[in-house]
């Protein structure tokens, strides 16, 4: 693997681990509130949380292969995840589902470009990310199916887009701007 490709793979692992860490905290706080107000969502939230914990372990394991440790600012993802989880769950069932959808769609978009970039550069890591991405897509589908029962109001669409922007902003802060550079690099160097 070329040195630049190795550096990009390391950035990918940093971003992915931080994101999964934040997701674990998002679901932990949503579950806390759902136990009181949204018991009908608990089964879904527990399953998603279980998957996110597994993803964290997977990316931490992959980081060890690259002799890496998580970024020092990963804790910001944890705090952001907790805050976003509590806020969305306290705003109601639909806001909670919009939070799930936004977090998972944002993750899915990033993972898609990573998979394509890593193909033929690091096929093992590409496969790992592909497998994680299947879960992320399923998570957003679970939330989106429940939201589709009523359709989204214009306000809900704006709220969803805002949550996606918050997820991207958190990623930018944690990586000190590297996530945007990574996105641009991946976009310019895709081999599809």
């Amino acid at each position: 693997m070329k040195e630049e490709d190795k550096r990009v793979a390391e950035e990918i692992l940093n971003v992915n681990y931080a994101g999964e860490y934040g997701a674990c905290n998002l679901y932990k706080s949503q579950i806390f509130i759902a136990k009181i107000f949204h018991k009908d969502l608990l089964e879904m939230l527990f399953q998603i949380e279980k998957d996110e914990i597994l993803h964290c372990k997977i990316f931490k394991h992959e980081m060890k292969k690259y002799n890496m440790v998580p970024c020092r600012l990963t804790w910001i993802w944890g705090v952001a995840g907790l805050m976003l989880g509590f806020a969305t769950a306290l705003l109601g069932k639909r806001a909670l589902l919009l939070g799930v959808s936004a977090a998972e769609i944002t993750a899915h978009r990033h993972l898609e470009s990573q998979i394509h970039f890593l193909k033929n550069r690091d096929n093992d890591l590409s496969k790992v990310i592909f497998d994680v991405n299947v879960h992320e897509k399923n998570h957003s589908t679970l939330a989106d199916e429940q939201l589709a029962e009523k359709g989204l109001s214009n306000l809900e669409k704006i709220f969803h887009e805002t949550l996606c922007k918050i997820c991207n902003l958190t990623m930018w802060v944690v990586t000190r701007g590297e996530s945007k550079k990574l996105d641009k690099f991946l976009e310019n160097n895709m081999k599809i």
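The radius of gyration is 16 Å. The helical segments are 3-37, 42-65, 74-90, 93-118, 123-148, 154-174, 178-188.
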